[in-house]
Each structure stands twice: as structure tokens, then as C-alpha cells.
From TrEMBL:
Family membership: Belongs to the EamA transporter family.
Name of the molecule in the record: DMT family transporter
Species assigned in the record: Sphingobacterium hotanense
Keyword ATP-binding annotated: no
InterPro entries per UniProt: AA-Vitamin_Transporters (IPR050638), EamA_dom (IPR000620), EmrE-like (IPR037185)
Subcellular location: Membrane
Alphabetical keyword list: Membrane, Transmembrane, Transmembrane helix
Highest taxon of the lineage: Bacteria
Transmembrane annotation, as ranges: 35-53, 65-85, 91-109, 116-133, 139-158, 170-188, 200-218, 230-250, 256-275
Main location: membrane
Length: 279
């Protein structure tokens, strides 16, 4: 029961870490680009988690390796594509659009009318935040954010599955190593990591700890105890954390209507969390 009480706080702490790390990462984009920054984040996180958790690879079954591989692919694609998106659009907008993945996952897993009501409220928020009436929409940035959302849903599904068939620490460590293996070829092609300096490396280490090592470990605590549906809509708090982080650390402002859209998403999150306690 003790671990179950930690599930929601772990998910919230994970979101705060991720968005703080994303703001720090965006500061690295001018020097390293989205691909270089993402690779530095994933690679350093993989190394940190490996030496902390020391997964016993020889004891893994074929099923565990398969689940870890798909989980790692989800991590790599979600992070790489999301960084490419927020290189083009504000952090708060990017995270809100990306939430379409967990949102549709929640809709697909819903069994009650009330669940659909909360998901539709979150959907309304997502539709409101996109600046449809302006001529400066970066369509590629929006598309990349939607695509990152699809891999976010895959991450949630596989995180829940892999945490049931093996130790969570082993799963996170192995998933991050596999994610690093997926993303390194893109970094070699991009060539931006050749520009790294000790200061950039130190900043990248901070991004790795805040954005991957800590939150993915915390997510495993949450995913082990919460249904994928509950976790999916709970993560709708991400846009609020992202918008605040973007405002505080990057001076990225949103319109009143866009803040209202974030409020819709947050209300959906609170609603589903309160009414899902007995399930």
C-alpha cells in the first residue's frame, strides 16, 4: 500500500523534472541542435542508470529483451522528435500538442462515459492552444509534436508492460541503453556533437539527470501501480508545467486563450485522478 501511495507523487515529480530539463535542453539547441542535445541527454542518462542499477543482462528472457527493445525505441523516438518540435515552437505549445498521444490512449482504454468526458475536455484544451488564426504557425513543428505524442503513448504502454515482467530498475536502465543505441546514428549523421565543450557537457549532464534518469525511474514507480488510462490523463499536467517552465526559464509567453486551454487539460487531469481512485 505504501508504494501505491507514492504512485501519484512520483508521476508529478517526474513531470516537474522533465519540463525543467526541457527548458535547460532548449538553451543547448543553438550550440548542439535538437539531435545533438537529445543524444547527449539519452546517452548520459543511459550511462548513469547503467552504473547505478547494474542490470543483469544474462538473466533476461527473450520476452524481456523484446519489451525492453520496444520500450527503448519509444524513449528514443519520443525524445528526439519532441526536441526537433520545440526547436520550432514554444515549449508549452509543444508539450500540449504532444499530449494527443496519451489522450487518445486514454480514450481507447476508457470504459465509462465520465472517462470520455475528461478526455474530451483535455482534447478541447489541445485544440484551443494551437494558434490557428495566425499566419506564423510552424506546421512542421506541430506535426513533429503530434508524432512525438504517438511515441509517448507507446512509451506509456510498454512502460506498463515491461514493469510487470521484470525489475523496474533493470527495465529503465536497459531501455535507456537501447534508446541510446537507436539515437547515436542520427547524432553521427548530424555531426553537432563535435562542437561539445566542457561547459556544454556539464549542461548536458544536468539535462540527462533532470529529463531522463530521474523521471523515467519515477515513471516506473507510477506505472507499476497505476493503470495506463489513469497515468495517461494524469500526465496532462505536463502542459501546465511546460508552460510555466518556458515562461520562467525561456521567457516564452502564451496568450490568454492558450492558458485557458492548458486549464482545460489540467482540469481533465484532476477530474480523472479524483474519479479513478476506486478503480
Amino acid at each position: 500500500m505504501k508504494n501505491k501511495n507514492l504512485a501519484v507523487p512520483a508521476a508529478l515529480a517526474s513531470m516537474i523534472c522533465v519540463q525543467g530539463g526541457a527548458s535547460l535542453a532548449k538553451r543547448l539547441f543553438p550550440a548542439l541542435g535538437a539531435i545533438g542535445t537529445s543524444t547527449l541527454r539519452i546517452g548520459l542518462s543511459a550511462v548513469i542508470l547503467y552504473f547505478i542499477n547494474r542490470p543483469k543482462f544474462s538473466s533476461f528472457s527473450k520476452k524481456q529483451w523484446l519489451y525492453c527493445a520496444i520500450y527503448g525505441l519509444g524513449i528514443a523516438a519520443m525524445n528526439l522528435i519532441f526536441y526537433m518540435a520545440i526547436q520550432r515552437i514554444p515549449l508549452g505549445l509543444g508539450v500540449t500538442i504532444e499530449f494527443v498521444g496519451p489522450l487518445f490512449l486514454a480514450l481507447a482504454l476508457s470504459r465509462k462515459l465520465l472517462d470520455i468526458v475528461w478526455a474530451l475536455l483535455a482534447c478541447t484544451g489541445i485544440l484551443l492552444i494551437v494558434p490557428w488564426g495566425t499566419g506564423n504557425i510552424d506546421l512542421l513543428g506541430l506535426f513533429l509534436a503530434f508524432l512525438a505524442g504517438a511515441f509517448w503513448a507507446l512509451y506509456i504502454i510498454m512502460g506498463g508492460k515491461v514493469s510487470k515482467v521484470m525489475d523496474s530498475k533493470d527495465a529503465v536502465s536497459t531501455g535507456m541503453l537501447i534508446a541510446a543505441a537507436f539515437i547515436i546514428p542520427f547524432a553521427i549523421w548530424d555531426g553537432q556533437l563535435a562542437k561539445i565543450t566542457p561547459m556544454l557537457f556539464a549542461q548536458g549532464l544536468g539535462v540527462a539527470i533532470l529529463s531522463s534518469a530521474l523521471p523515467f525511474s519515477l515513471d516506473m514507480v507510477a506505472l507499476k501501480q497505476l493503470p495506463a488510462k489513469t497515468f495517461s490523463i494524469l500526465t496532462s499536467l505536463q502542459p501546465a508545467f511546460a508552460a510555466l517552465s518556458g515562461l520562467l526559464f525561456l521567457q516564452e509567453t502564451l496568450t490568454g486563450l492558450q492558458w485557458l486551454s492548458i486549464a482545460c487539460v489540467v482540469m481533465a487531469s484532476i477530474g480523472t485522478t479524483l474519479f479513478s481512485r476506486n478503480h
